[in-house]
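Following up on my earlier thread - several people asked me to post the actual chain instead of describing it. Fair enough. Here it is, all 91 residues.
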Amino acid sequence: ASNGVDGIAQYRQGLHDLVITDVFMPEKSGLETIPDLKDEFPQIKIIAMTAWDAQDELDVLAMTKESGADDVLSKPFKASVVTGKIRALLG
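Reply from S.P.:
Thanks for posting it. Predicted structure:
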């Protein structure tokens, strides 16, 4: 999905085990999408990702955890990091 609105609609159709979302997207950001998904589907596991530099004043990764993300990724990242986080969340 290219944005949070489409992502939520696609999740409703397929009810997947995990959502990986970007934090900054058009129409509906990840910071808006994450709590909406968690409210409607409390069992959902969500990984949020961003290229926002954690050294900046605004700690976007911490904000995504506060909004309900189960884990976070800072871009760029290696595939092995993603698969490790997925395994940890889904068992």
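The first helix runs from residue 4 to 14. That should answer part of your original question.
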